[in-house]
Design brief:
Keywords: Signal
Protein name: DUF4360 domain-containing protein
Number of domains: 1
Distance between the termini: 28 Å
Number of helices: 1
Structural class: mainly beta
Order of helices and strands: HEEEEEEEEEEEE
Strand content: over 45%
Length: about 200
């Protein structure tokens, strides 16, 4: 078999595998909780095909500066998902996409972080984006990529926690101010990796 034909057969096999998984994979339920998404301040929408989810936040904001309480320096929102997994496969998240804003004085750092873990495991995977002031942006797409792929249990419906957190640190300049916020989080189908198990 020529190398071209071999590569083509691999591509066809991959597309078939991806399509088979896509037909059976689904998000069946979710729960939101945390200081950044108090009841009534955030909404989650599962797509019509139940294969992706998006969140909108009204008040997911962290601040630091003179007169700002330390409790405002950090905020989080925990998304708990119930995911139906096809038999013989397991999945991992490879990317989380946010729409974020920040305004940071010199010496102030803002951090966007995502941790995810499965209920049956003590392990977790973390992705972080840090912005150092002086910096400002009214709307920016931020992508937190986990340092490692953490795989779901094999072929089982899984409960997965996705914890989004914001932090503003002005410890290097106590008189400086900063703010970071998130308005949306998206987890589309192409942000999920699959493998046989």
């Amino acid at each position: 078999m020529s190398s071209t034909r071999f590569l083509f057969s691999l591509l066809v096999g991959f597309l078939y595998l991806t399509g088979a998984i896509a037909q059976k994979y689904s998000i069946t339920d979710y729960i939101l909780s945390g200081t950044g998404c108090a009841r009534g301040t955030a909404t989650a929408t599962i797509s019509d095909d139940a294969k992706s989810i998006s969140l909108k936040y009204q008040s997911f904001v962290a601040n630091a500066g003179p007169g700002v309480a330390d409790s405002n320096n950090r905020k989080n929102c925990q998304l708990t998902l119930v995911v139906n997994v096809p038999s013989g496969y397991q999945f991992a998240f490879n990317d989380f996409s946010y729409s974020g804003r920040y305004a940071l004085d010199s010496g102030v750092k803002g951090q966007f972080q995502t941790d995810y873990y499965f209920q049956s495991s003590i392990d977790e995977s973390t992705g972080t984006v840090t912005v150092a002031g002086p910096a400002s942006n009214s709307t920016r797409t931020l992508s937190t990529t986990p340092k490692n792929l953490l795989w779901s249990p094999c072929g089982k419906s899984s409960i997965v926690g996705v914890n989004s957190s914001l932090r503003v640190d002005n410890s290097a300049s106590g008189n400086a101010s900063g703010s970071v916020s998130v308005t949306t989080l998206s987890i589309p189908v192409d942000s999920i990796s699959w493998k046989q198990c």
